[in-house]
């Protein structure tokens, strides 16, 4: 399975900043040491033209040229620096590369990404550009150019925070279905309407969460009974975990693993390729967060191996026939 990383671009954050930047390198180090079936590759750079499929030219220039206002930087949560701009482009490039690999091989991942709070004209909540939105639009354009056919996309956003930027970007786009399962009382406090929003109470535990997930996935498949999606972007945030500083939900490690397994199994059974992004994770112990993400990557690899054995690929080809 192919996985793309951009952790060599480290943001110079002030002392005491609560964003856990080292988690990306720690995850890659553990994958290198423990999961040889995942082929790690550096992320390419997203071009201005690719970013402009979603983002306004003014905003792209502000990020590239260091022209973000202090208010814009506060909303993003990162001070501007050349490394910040470069990493933002690479994070989008990683999801683009993973999307192309998933369409070819069934499953692929970005070891970061899932920057779902970024809008077309601004960033927010540690998100500069919206990697999933850009990759979805680009894959649709490339698919149409190659096949003269429509590629329907579904976004399954299981980060603990609602995917407000993604929902706003695709509000009037019937070709992209946005599903967000998130904490009711958590950031962002002004939610944008997704195609399907499921808000969960503080303290939600494994059984209630998984029941809500099953119902949401069932609604997703029913909405696409006549025209199934050809690609799923899965935002597998680790922040619903009970140890997360920002999450407010109470999922166990086993519950998170079961969440991931159900998403991968449901997509594989329908022959739908999956692009995995890691989204949020702010555990009190960064190594626990990395361990949760490592489990997600292992489950993605297991799903990819099933694709490699042919059963899921056959289902995909049948669904596109």
Would you write up a description of this structure?
The longest helix has 24 residues, at 82-105. Helix content is 46%, strand content 12%. β1, α1 and β2 (39-42) form a beta-alpha-beta unit. With 321 residues, it is α/β, with parallel strands linked by helices. It contains eleven helices and eight strands. It is globular, with a radius of gyration of 18 Å. It starts with a strand and ends with a helix. It has an eight-stranded parallel beta sheet, sandwiched between helices. The mean pLDDT is 95.
Structure annotation, total helices: 11
Helicity level, as a percent range?
A: 40-55%
Uncertain runs with pLDDT below 50, 5 residues or more? Answer: none
Overall pLDDT confidence: 95
Largest beta sheet: what is the strand line-up?
Answer: 2-1-3-8-7-4-5-6
Order of helices and strands: EHEHHHHEHEHEEHEHEHH
Instruction: List the quaternary state of the chains.
Output: single chain
Structural class based on helices, strands and sheet pairing:
alpha/beta
Global Rg = 18 Å
How far the N terminus sits from the C terminus, by CA atoms, comes to: 25 Å
Q: Main beta sheet: strand number and arrangement?
A: 8 strands, parallel
β-sheet strand percentage = 5-15%
- Number of DSSP E strands: 8
Broad shape: globular
């Amino acid at each position: 399975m192919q996985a793309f990383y951009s952790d060599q671009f480290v943001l110079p954050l002030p002392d005491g900043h609560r964003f856990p930047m080292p988690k990306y390198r720690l995850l890659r180090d553990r994958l290198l040491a423990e999961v040889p079936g995942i082929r790690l590759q550096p992320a390419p750079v997203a071009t201005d033209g690719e970013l402009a499929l979603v983002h306004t030219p003014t905003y792209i220039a502000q990020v590239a040229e260091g022209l973000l206002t202090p208010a814009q930087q506060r909303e993003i949560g990162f001070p501007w620096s050349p490394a910040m701009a470069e990493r933002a482009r690479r994070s989008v490039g990683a999801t683009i590369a993973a999307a192309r690999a998933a369409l070819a091989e069934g499953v692929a991942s970005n070891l970061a990404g899932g920057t779902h709070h970024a809008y077309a004209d601004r960033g927010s909540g540690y998100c500069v550009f919206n990697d999933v939105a850009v990759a979805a639009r680009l894959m649709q354009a490339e698919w149409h150019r190659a096949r003269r056919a429509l590629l329907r996309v579904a976004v399954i956003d299981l980060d603990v925070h609602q995917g407000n930027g993604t929902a706003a970007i695709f509000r009037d786009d019937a070709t992209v279905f946005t599903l967000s399962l998130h904490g009711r009382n958590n950031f962002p406090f002004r939610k944008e309407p997704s195609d399907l929003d499921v808000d969960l109470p503080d303290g939600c535990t494994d059984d209630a969460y998984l029941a809500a997930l099953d119902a949401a996935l069932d609604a997703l498949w029913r909405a696409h009974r006549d025209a199934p999606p050809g690609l799923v972007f899965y935002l597998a945030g680790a922040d619903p975990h009970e140890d997360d500083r920002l999450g407010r939900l109470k999922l166990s490690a086993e519950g998170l693993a079961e969440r991931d397994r159900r998403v991968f199994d449901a997509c594989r059974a329908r022959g739908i390729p999956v692009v995995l992004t890691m989204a949020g994770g702010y555990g009190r112990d960064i190594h626990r967060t990395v361990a949760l993400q490592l489990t997600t990557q292992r489950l993605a690899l297991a799903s990819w191996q099933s694709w490699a054995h042919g059963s899921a690929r056959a289902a995909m080809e049948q669904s596109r026939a």
